Amino acid sequence: MEDDRKNGHYLDTENADESVWLMKSPVVVSKAWEKQVKQFSSSSTSLPKLIDVGAKVVESIDPLQSEINPEYSMEIVSAENRNIPKSYAMNMFEEFVDMRAFSEANQHKALLGKIDHKFDMKPLGEDIEDYARLCRERTNRAMVKNRQIKVLDNDTGARMRPMPYFIPTNPKDKRPVPVKQTDVKRFRRDRGEIEAIMFKLFEDQSNWTLKQLVQKTDQPAQFLKEIMNELCVYNKRGSNQGTYELKPEYKKAAEDDTNGQ
């Protein structure tokens, strides 16, 4: 076992039976928390204090109906996060696949516990308007392109135009136009830029299939799925079966942005 520890093949299972919550949070919240984690990691303050000052979870129960599951909500209380919405509903999933949480630190992996609660975090009440505003601001920032014009020094233009001896005179010598392969590897672009493109596409058309969005954005399908899981709803039945459409809060944000213009 000592050799496994040294080689990094050791798995710490001391906390295998611990209860763990899994929560999907909006991008603005996760980025704010990541920033706080880095700040606390670089200081002498312990991480548990971050949880105390960052947010609080409220559990609501009905003492007269104990058979009904409790409802959860979250309040952002940290002064560092004053620019993001404060109130969120935590929608709990009743059924999900058996999952475990792992971490990797100190050159070995550790099993943190079993996930027994899974939540989807969404803005609550009046904070929906604030969240829609943040989405519009993020989209507008992604659409701004910082282009620069650079003047080439000591350039004769030889590389800017084809030279006579580079042009084939015999049609047989011309190179055939390469056929674009369908399995060409696609490279991820900036997430904010892709989100802006997708918002624009959904303005033109309310429903899209994954294949159509891959062709329109030229992005990997898995990358688009990650973005659409946050921005869109997948239609499993009905006339639009098999297509994606924007979530209601993003539709409202797009309508407000259009009316504002």
From TrEMBL:
Name of this chain's protein: TFIIF beta subunit HTH domain-containing protein
InterPro entries documented for this protein: TFIIF_beta (IPR003196), TFIIF_beta_HTH (IPR040450), TFIIF_interaction (IPR011039), WH-like_DNA-bd_sf (IPR036388), WH_DNA-bd_sf (IPR036390)
GO CC terms in record: transcription factor TFIIF complex
Subcellular location: Nucleus
Residue ranges, compositional bias (Basic and acidic residues): 246-255
A Gene Ontology biological process term: transcription initiation at RNA polymerase II promoter
Keywords from the UniProt entry: DNA-binding, Nucleus, Transcription, Transcription regulation
One Pfam entry name: TFIIF_beta
Family statement: Belongs to the TFIIF beta subunit family.
Positions of region (Disordered): 240-261
Top-rank taxon, per record: Eukaryota
